[in-house]
Amino acid sequence: MADTKHTKVLIIGSGPAGYTAGVYAARAMLEPILVQGIEPGGQLTTTTEVENYPGFTEVQGPDLMIKMQEHAAAMGCKIVGDIITELDISKRPFQALGDSGTHYTAEAIILATGARAKWLGIASEEKFKGFGVSACATCDGFFYRGQEIVVIGGGNTAVEEALFLTKFASKVTLIHRRDELRAEKVLQDRLFKNDKIVPMWFNTLEEVYGSDMPLGVEGIKAKNVKTGKITDIPCKGVFIAIGHAPANELLVDKLELHNGGYVLVEPGSTRTSVPGIFASGDLTDHVYRQAVTSAGMGCMAALDAEKFLSEQD
Ligand code: FAD
Ligand code: NAP
Q: Considering the entire predicted model, what is its pTM?
């Protein structure tokens, strides 16, 4: 028979928002259950040094997330390794189905499903995904020791990925569609000082090419957005770092979304268009998208959920 778990507060997601909500909801004696999803610890587990989380001059992303998990668990948050595959928020108690077969029922839900890497959507990117095309340098950089690599994008992620990849690669070409980076100045400074990184401005990725047997990348064709000129760049690895999109698949047609799929919340709160459903972190934030702001919103969501539940009582 399928397992059913009832809780006052179900937290979906285990990034900074989810774990912080877990700490606060547990301390409010709400006995929360937190479902971790496919990426326990969230996006910070895909990076190395984090230098801007208060209290840590420098901490490895995965270590920070283990500390957050331990903190939430120590406060009494029940942490479950499962993935929510279906959500019914049309009536209370709300219902969620886990990939494990467990049914979760809850009086309130805190959504903290974060964001996922965006892809360019070109056919050759799809063909070589996992065979030379990646969106995670910390996961796959090691495979490219002594090789040439290309990184696409101009934000913090692209610059951090490019810098990290110089540990392995002989050369990193950073391809950006403009001639100005979006990344923080401190990161830009490190990038421009690094001899292994060659920026290529006003270009986009036109095509990835390579061998079929075995499947592997041998190079890319970049297109100049001003002149249309195609440049051939031999390389073994292609890292796509063009941003992240909110992980909202469970919520489409159930909650009001805006700005390309971010969950809409009442200004200054985490209240969504459905009473009792609260949203936090990168899922709702198209502006700041930082670990510390996500953690702050996780705190707000737990406090909002506590207030909502006490008003129901
Ligand atoms: P996320 O961290 O995205 O976590 C989402 C969680 O939801 C995951 O645990 C996932 O498993 C879970 N989930 C998703 N779908 C489901 C489901 N169906 N069922 C159950 N669970 C689900 N920010 C900084 O402040 N400093 C940095 O140095 C920094 N470096 C970064 C480096 C990289 C490479 C990247 C990609 C991001 C970086 N960021 C950094 C941004 C930061 O990681 C995010 O702002 C933050 O992680 C967002 O937290 P979150 O809790 O909203 O969601
Ligand atoms: P981002 O800031 O949205 O930057 C995405 C980059 O990719 C931009 O330079 C953009 O170009 C480019 N791009 C987008 N779509 C493209 C396309 N179709 N083709 C070519 N280029 C494209 O995303 P991010 O760098 O992943 O960062 C996401 C959030 O996480 C940000 O808030 C960031 O601050 C945070 N983060 C923080 C840290 C840190 O604090 N150290 C590290 C990583 C991420 P344009 O510039 O022309 O738009």
A: 0.90
